[in-house]
Protein 1
Amino acid sequence: MSDKIYNLDAGFWNIRGSFRVGGILNIGAQCSLIQLASGNFIFLDSYALTGDVRDEVMALTDNGQKVEAVLNLHPFHTIHCAQMAKDFPQTIFYGSSRHPTKVPEVQWAEDLVESDAVAQRYPELEFSIVRGIDYISSNEMIHAGSLLAYHPASKSLHVDDTFISPPIKALEAILPELILHPTTKKALKDKPNAGQQYCDWATNLAHEWQDVRHFCAAHSYLVTFHKGEFKKALLKAINKARPKLENI
């Protein structure tokens, strides 16, 4: 399956890519391109662009010269960072504290991607970091923690792993439209109220970002919600999981 780019309007493009586990199973990957008020662009996450998608991105960004930053939101999504840095050498690269340890060849910014300093530089976006679970788990197999980014102008939510959609679009008829990452329970902090903190955070998010129309998740597909559907879907997922997450 070839990579695709989706114009979600108001200066937001979502790029759906490939990531094969063991070279066989394609679980998908993503990054998003956002045009700022200044006319410059930023990426959310790194992805090695190829083919027609690369050509379109380069045409939009003056051959990459207008890309000012890449915000790598998920601590464990590092495989494409080095290539992205080669493709956009003039760009500032923001990441978590884990990124420089895994991709030391990239010149990382001093400010961490989840810092207030970075958030203040990009008022076009709203950010929320997971609560009640570790952003960077000590277990390399637990990827539920992430920094979420919402673009109000296009009503697009970019999220890696924390929330996902059904793996196959046809399953929407029998599965919820949103699913919590399967490692969420294992990701909970070792605190008595960690499960409640996580569920309360997600519940608040459902209300604060209830206008989401475009749900861009890493290892699934692009989901389009009608008015009120995102809030309903996320609350349904949280309410279903809350008893299990709080009873540990």
Protein 2
Amino acid sequence: MAKRSKAFVAAAAKIEEDKFYAPVEAIALAKEVAFSKADETVEVAFRLGVDPRKADQMVRGTVILPHGTGKTARVLVFANGDKAEAAIAAGADFVGSDDLIAKIAGGWTDFDAAVATPDLMGKVGRLGKVLGPRNLMPNPKTGTVTMDVAKAVNDIKGGKIDFRVDKHSNLHFIIGKVSFDAQKLAENYAAALDEVLRLKPSSSKGRYITKATLTTTFGPGIAVDANVTRVLPDAS
């Protein structure tokens, strides 16, 4: 086991052992115990009561965080002609077709999200071994295989995240940066949680979210009460 820094140990000491914090409490505590000089990312991990080996229990989706992620995503678009021009105009960082496909086949993956027009997916699909494990493969279910590449780029740049349960039934996503105020982080968490709950497979029985943890890039994990699904007060 790696030796923890004194700052990490001091941060962990402020977290009550065996306590499950309400989401807003966990967010406030995460901001309090963050010790890096860098603006750390705030991350959430859920353990889901699903069997991802079964196609009807694969949880995958997208959500646009109301306050963004705090990071400007580098977006790559596979497109030709006027669609390529539209992607460039929308602010895509990399646009092309065969040239980018060859570059990625060689191992280059210096981008955060990929979009493709449907006509190029026959070629892009060959990159599955490179893009798949990094969750970068364009997919119509996440809106990244589309003719409206400009909208896809704008959504991603505007704070759209995607998430997918892994083979161990874990699901990870980010909700912003430590520099965000607690209310914005709570609203981002609530938006993501609502979408995860909406995607609960009908074939999943028993508890859906069995474990929840909130952490910062370098900080200790904070156990979140997975039973709390109403994060924000009801405005009605």
